[in-house]
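Repro:
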Amino acid sequence: MAKGYNRPKPTMGGGGMMAQIQQMQEQMAQAQAQLAEETVTATVGGGAISVTMTGDQVCKSVEIVPELLEDADAEMLQDLITSGVNAALDKSRELASEKMAPFTDMLGGLGLGL
């Protein structure tokens, strides 16, 4: 390196970008925390089974109408529970997608391919 050579000083643009990324990370963490507290409920079988799930795909409860158990058709009950869980998962993913859309759009705009 030649004597007296000074490296160019970093511009504010780089620091501003890092601050924006850090702010976005904080907002994403906040949105994820909100998802963990929000719930969705799916019902199947004409309301015979209700499944409640959080926005971060944690099953909170499965409710079965007692009259459904009187017939004791295990296969039908299994099918209804499976359908209910899958419907609740779909609703939960939809909620998560809505909450996280601003971030994925922003990251996609940065060329990160999300």
